[in-house]
Fold this protein.
Amino acid sequence: MLTELWKDRILILDGAMGTELLKRGLPAGAEPVLWGLDHPQVLAAIHREYIGAGSQVIYASTFGASARTLGKSGRSVDEVVGGAVTIARQAAARTDVKVALDIGPLGTLLEPMGALTFEDAYEQFREIAQAGERAGAALAVIETMTDLYEAKAALLAVKENTSLPVFATMSVERGGRTFTGCTVQSMARTLEGLGADAIGLNCSLGPEQLPPLIVELARNTRLPVIAKPNAGLPDPADGHYDMGPEDFAAAMRACLEAGASIVGGCCGTSPEYIRRLREAVGGCSPAARAYDPISFVCTPAVPCRIGGVRVIDERVDAAGEERFRQALLEDDMDYILDAALEQEDAGADILGVDVSYPGVNERIVLPRVVKAIQSVVTLPLRLDSADPDALEAALRVYNGKAAVSPGNGDRETLDRILPIVKRYGAAVVGLCPDQNGILPAAEDRPAIAQRILDAALSYGIPREDVRIDGLAATGSVRQDRAEETLKTVRIVRTLP
């Protein structure tokens, strides 16, 4: 299998394409993807030089080959992507080197920061991914992303429309966030949950700045970690990169020690950089890593570790106040957003969102409320619904890693909801009631909790992403039930 290429071993990628094309005649302002296609001998020569330098995977020159970019050129995505992948495959013929489809950002912001919708972005990435697979690419690489939402659209487009393995890398600034504010932790937990095969960092920084970020990344993923930095930092005067091949290769050893196992170069690097890199890491094995198996939910900007007491506000919940139910029925989104903002200001860590109420079409309203809340609030969300279609629609447009409460621990309910939770990499908050309601005795509830845990594990949801809610009855009504809930918590903590 192709995944054996990077399992328990160091995998060497190629270096920059754009700066190499500039060296060989690409005019300033020209589209590299089109110029390379019009100069196939130049493109093939670059690929062959990277192969000769030791690259085990080369990126086809398809970065930026979206319908949006190509619109005025008169060329189709299929023509451009197919042509570039074919040139790379011909260069790699009679070698073991694999050709990757290179997918970059679309060059415009997604909503709410921009006008491009998630599904429109998804469709553009789908077209690129399918064209790449038809042309014979062995894997897809999503790279240089700064917006986690855009990275999600690209990753889902590849996973849902091709059989290609997927690498996904984002570009992080010195402060540990992308240009749009995404943290390394949020990136790692979200992209692994969505099904990436390897994740990492590329562009923006040089290898000397990456090791602390690689450590943080490795702590938050079980996947192979990619490091593909620039050749140092650009000189503000003339734009040249300040690190030579030998220094670059030496600095990359620290990235390996930090946890990276898939390595290459980005802007400013050349075949000579890859040659030196291969010499520097030859014979190395992936370093030991310390993954942190803790429950985690997030938005891009707010990572939330569930390792202690967290405040989950439930004002944005149809089971709560009458005024919220009225807002749902009247489509009063201003009230809903005001409620969410008030709870963020009051110190909530997570917002619980439940729109299930007679007369409300959850399948339309839940994703709409999720998108609206995420346009004004940075907190992670817990989505409460027993409607699988509503949950799927909401999780699809959710930006980050959400939590989901299926409603109860009935096996039929779990079998409808948990596959969707797995598909979108969410966490689970399992409720101890089943079809018989809240069982009065604590000793009767752990069997339901065990059923939830076993079902989640059977669908491939990690154990750390499963939390159990003992569900207390109102203490003012039945004080004895509060004690039973505390007993439930104590017993559930001992589940195997």
